[in-house]
Amino acid sequence: MKKLLKSHAFEFIVVIAYGVLFIFYPEKTFTALKVGLTLLSKMLPIFFCVVFFSCFIAIFLSPKTIQKYMGQQSGLKGVVIAAILGTLIVGPLWVLFPLFGTLLKKGARISVVGAMIGAFAIKTPWIPYAAGFLGWPFITVTVILTLVYAMFEGLLMEKILK
Amino acid sequence: MNIWGVVVYTIIVIASYLYAFKKDKVKGMKGLQKGWKRFLRQLPFIFSIFLLVGLFDVFIPKSTVVSVVGHGKGFMAILNAALVGSVVGGPVSSVYPLGALLLKKGATVAVAAVFINAWVMVGIISMPFEISIFGKKFVFIRNIFAFIGAIIIGMLTGLILTGNVI
Q1: Distance from CA of B71 to the nearest CA of A (A)
Q2: Partners of residue B49 in chain A, C-beta under 8 Å
Q3: Average pLDDT, stretch B56-83?
Q4: Do B118 and B146 lie in a common domain?
């Protein structure tokens, strides 16, 4: 029980907030519930797709594959490829940061790793989900700008750190 | 999200797994199992975050949001959004609905974009872990770049979509 409480603290807080607010503002809280559930019904199918697509990518673009692939890349082309790969990589930070670290240790250039980390801010499987909330123009512009900035960031980081 | 978005994405997912199974049955199966497990595991969180957005939507008046990050707040609004986005980390599944809520409550496009960018680019909470792998100097410079980038990209997004950088 204690473990459950700890791992789902956020969920419990939301439930408690609903309970308390319901006592004082029953009508407003009910509206909030309705808003939340409507959102859920709209976005759950997309979320379902996001999770399965992420798992597909995670399996076919494993850290090993990336390492092997990036080992052969260099120059500006390497930076561009790294940024594009960065948008495709999915997974938790505690898996990906060590991967980036290994790349650096194995001799990958700072520009390449920097661009990859920068582009990691774009999570391709999440793009349709983000568009569902913010619209396609918003997310398209953000993705393009982030991609360009990631390459620029990688190159500049190399200049500074070298 | 319209129904076509769901249909297209579903087709993409089905196609990707058809490819996966053709290439490697074991791996494809592993992907499906992993996906289902992860979906169930994340379900309570996504459920809660949407319910929280519902609460914010009903209980936080538009005027409050506008008075902090609305038009006319100038660069302070941008800076506040960047700082809050950098400090509050969390799954990406939560940042997009919160960003959309900001927009709905009267924040400018630039402010919402800066908030979202800072959230996904800068990692204050994960910094100690990042330092243990890359060292202080690398992480410090990377996060500075990410912070500035979040602001630049967000302001440009505002400029492109609405004609306003703030």
Answers
A1: 18
A2: 14
A3: 90
A4: yes
A108/chain B closest Cα distance in angstroms: 13
| Distance in angstroms between the alpha carbons of the first and the last residue of chain A | 51
pLDDT digits 0-9 by tens, A91-108: 877 788 988 898 888 888
The range of the structural domain enclosing residue B36 comes to 1-59
- Which of B24, B43, B59 corresponds to the end of one domain? B59
- Residue B71 CB contacts under 8 Å (≥ 6 apart), including other chains: B106, B108
Structurally, chain B folds into a number of domains equal to 2
CB < 8 Å to A93, chain B: 123, 126, 129-130
Residue A136 contacts B, CB cutoff 8 Å:
no
Contacts of B10 in chain A (CB under 8 A): 45, 49
CB pairs under 8 A between A and B: 210
In this structure, are residues B142 and A157 in contact, taking their beta carbons and an 8 Å threshold? yes
Residues B87 and B163 in one domain: yes
ipTM of the complex: 0.92
Mean pLDDT, residues B32-42: 94
Domain boundary among B42, B59, B76: B59
Say if residue B163 is in the same domain as residue B104.
yes
Q: What is the CA radius of gyration of chain A?
A: 20
Q: Do B114 and B126 fall into the same domain?
A: yes
Task: Name the one residue in this structure whose structure tokens are 């770049």.
Answer: B145
pTM strictly above 0.80: yes
Q: pLDDT (tens digit, 9 = 90+) per residue, A4-40?
A: 888 889 999 999 999 999 999 999 999 999 999 999 9
